[in-house]
Write a structure and sequence with these properties.
41% of the residues lie in helices and 11% in strands. The protein is an alpha/beta fold and 261 residues long. A six-stranded mixed sheet has the order 5-4-3-1-2-6, with helices on both faces. α4 links the parallel β3 and β4. α2 runs parallel beside α6 and α3 packs parallel to α4. The longest helix is centred in the first third of the chain and has 21 residues. It starts with 5 loop residues before the first strand and ends with a strand. The model has no long low-confidence stretch (mean pLDDT 89).
């Protein structure tokens, strides 16, 4: 079992946790759940080694919804590396492949370069793809083709090193089912984020915690309400160059302790 004493996450809405909303309006998401699993594993490892728990496990999440890969790397990568975490998760490109024009090879090259930069700093990199929502969204077939190309391109560029772990959520057929997606059909819901967290912890060789209560079935809007409430606003942001993350700050900009239940 791997033991990490700290973890930092960078990315877009997928990593921020959009779709897994808490009662107070904050978002949780798979990265928070992974941090919980890692914190428990760290505490257990420390007790086994010394008979007492080590210091607090630190977790930072610098992800901001709506970010393209370029800004993720420019604004978040160096900031995350400066925190000197034991583990850094890297995901991006999902927003890029939804734009009219994109070079999938360039996106894959940027991801590989970012991973190598973090590894050179002595950080174990968790490189992961997002889930595949394309069965349920407009223009899904076109986006799926690009997503498949990106997954293949990134997989081919994963460095051969014990300092990197690659988790391919895009190829998780179970995760394509609508029950894992929020009402906008583009972001994972709480159940989907749990699925991704389970995939990641399993790949890291870390025990998967009991995530708690069952997730209730979502009440989904009809077709007209769905387009009016989600698709049209998304198109409007694309046409005006706006982003859902404009003006937002990271929810955990520094390594902060994870409270264990």
């Amino acid at each position: 079992m791997k033991s990490f004493g700290s973890y930092a996450a960078i990315g877009d809405s997928f990593t921020e946790g959009v779709g897994d909303e808490l009662p107070d309006g904050a978002v949780r998401g798979w990265a928070d759940l992974v941090a919980l699993g890692l914190a428990r594993a760290h505490a257990a490892s420390s007790r086994a080694a010394s008979g007492s728990a080590a210091g607090d496990f630190g977790y930072a999440n610098l992800a901001i919804r709506g970010r393209l890969l370029g800004p993720i790397i420019d604004e978040q990568l160096d900031a995350a590396i400066s925190l000197k975490p034991d583990l850094l998760s890297l995901n991006g490109g999902g927003n890029d492949i939804m734009r009219p024009k994109v070079s999938v090879e360039s996106v894959a090259d940027q991801l590989a370069s970012a991973a190598e930069k973090a590894m050179a700093a002595g950080i174990h990199v968790l490189l992961l793809s997002g889930g595949n929502p394309t069965n349920h969204i407009p223009l899904g077939a076109r986006i799926e083709m690009r997503g498949e190309q990106l997954a293949v391109a990134v997989r081919a560029r994963v460095p051969e090193s014990d300092m990197v772990t690659f988790v391919d959520n895009w190829s998780d057929a179970e995760l394509t089912q609508l029950r894992y997606w929020s009402v906008d059909k583009l972001h994972l819901n709480a159940l989907g984020h749990r699925r991704v967290a389970t995939n990641i912890l399993t790949a890291l060789g870390v025990p998967v915690p009991d995530w708690g209560d069952e997730v209730p079935e979502l009440r989904r809007p009809g077709t007209v309400a769905y387009w009016r409430g989600y698709v049209v606003p998304w198109i409007g942001r694309r046409l005006t160059g706006r982003s859902s993350g404009d003006g937002r700050e990271p929810k955990r900009p520094t390594l902060m302790p994870v409270e264990l239940p």
